[in-house]
Amino acid sequence: MMPPPSFPSWCDGWTARSRWPMTACWRLRERSFARHWSIVDADQYDETERLAVLDSYDILDTPAEQAFDDVVKLASQLLDAPIAAVNLIAKNRQWFKSEVGLGTREMPLDDSICKFALLEDQLMIVPDTREDARFARNPLVTGEPRLRFYAGQLLKTKAGIPLGTLCVLDVEPRPEGLTQQQQFVLATLAQQIMSQIELRKVVKDQAVLIARQAQVQGELRESQRRALEVSRQAEAERRRTDALLEAAPVGIVIADANGAIVKMNAENRRMLGLHPEATDLGPGQPWRGWWADGSVRHGQPLAPHEWSLARALLGEESPRQVIEIAPFDAATPRRTVLNSGRPVRDEIGAIIGAVIAQMDITDRIDAESALRMADQKKDEFLAMLAHELRNPLAPIMSAAAILSNFHFDEGVVRRTGAIIARQAGHMTSLINDLLDVSRVTRGKVQLDTAELNIRDVIADAIEQVRPLVTRHQHHLDVLLAPVQVMVRGDRKRLVQVFANLLGNAAKYTPDGGRIELLLEAQARTLTVSIRDNGVGMSSELIDSAFDLFSQGVQGLDRSQGGLGIGLALARSLVQLHGGVVSAKSDGVGMGCQLEVTLPRVGAAMCVG
């Protein structure tokens, strides 16, 4: 009997990979959405066989065991799932060998999500239970705790008989499901759980065989062989778990009950390094950390009892903290980490150690700080822009009022008109600078390139800034290389670059100062240096001198007007020409040197 073509095929793979009859799976599919559910309704023998295999492991209704609890807790932490469990599908019930976040050891089979996983080959992932018809009336989905996400890895015997799953659940849907790495984590941990189940069974069988040693020596030897094989499997699983810890992108530390570190993975070693003298680094050892959570204690050092390791060893289940740590290597900068921990308990609940996980969030914190700084600079720039655009309006409005309310001779009208023209020109210059910056940052500048003599470009730039130099009574020295130096570029834009740099030097140099322009030619490049003996720059300002909205001491500059975006614009235009621009200064009050390097074209020829 073949099912209709339109029927869902979510158990086809089961019949292809197992010895269970096709009729059993088909009848199962006919009943799979019914309220009452069993693994195999159609063939009681097969379900009876599966239950008998499960009973043979003698694991149902046994006390909690540390080996299982540790794996479940690790699955919950590594997969960031509030609920995780080792569940076994028994007759009319689902029983949990170990669980985190459920608070119960069993539930009716009718409420089970995991039972559907037994129809899969290995892994079942349900990104959103609300979008899966199988769980439309499941009380755990429609009611509390309103489960939304499920992922379950089968626990199968060597013969392929499914006993249950290692599953993780969340009350929030996960449209992306699990990554490949997360699937590998879940599969690896499920293998370890099954190895523990097999090991329990082997230990039980071995006890029986030892009791019958005198009569059945052959059975004893087989039991020993099986025990050795399981031991090898357990060792292999341990190695896989070690590899998993080393590959994890979060730092993981495992400590004993005294707080001594017994294991530290690669990511944690990258963040902290290794102390040159100590191998057991407990709470009393030279850990250095500071609160970085933005609270009133931000920046204060952590006391020994405040570390998540110390708190976990005192029984606090999930201490979380944002701290700044200092690696043992003094040359390594501090790192900001999100730190959490959990105590490890034995079968009677006594704390026998702790597991600490910490994620390096330094880059994220730095990025957020940079965004806040950029936003602050933007606000400062907008305030200064409003001030600069308002300044020319006062003389323009006064001049307009004079012209409209009084009759003057031609000389008064001409002088008043000159004021209006000069201030309007100043506003036009400000707006043109803003438009230039906007075009450059949006990549809208089109260069009109040609081969140019850099001497002519420098001469035009000096001509533009000469009124400013003269007004401040600066002494300008121009030293040009004794060769013809050609560049390929946009004449107007290159003149704008050097005029901005010369204007910057003039604005930030007190009256009567000295400015020097030096042109040097190399084989493939040319360098134009502009030096002054003005106010100079601090090391902090040099690092951001060419950033948009970045400004230094504004006393001299504000007296001359301007938006303080000249250096940012100059750098962008130089980069469009394939060059670089840099700033140097010995400190505040020690003058400044701006240097532009551009590609050179043509051969050098002696002048004169």
Automatic annotation (TrEMBL):
Broad enzyme group: transferase
Taxonomic superkingdom: Bacteria
Catalytic activity from the UniProt record: ATP + protein L-histidine = ADP + protein N-phospho-L-histidine
Domain Histidine kinase, chain residue ranges per copy: 384-602
UniProt-listed InterPro entries: GAF (IPR003018), GAF-like_dom_sf (IPR029016), HATPase_C_sf (IPR036890), HATPase_dom (IPR003594), His_kinase_dom (IPR005467), HisK_dim/P_dom (IPR003661), HisK_dim/P_sf (IPR036097), PAS (IPR000014)
Residues annotated as domain PAC: 316-373
Keyword entries, A-Z: Kinase, Phosphoprotein, Transferase
EC number: 2.7.13.3
Ranges of residues in domain PAS: 237-277
Entry keyword Phosphoprotein: yes
The protein's name in its UniProt record: histidine kinase
Source species of the chain: Pseudoduganella umbonata
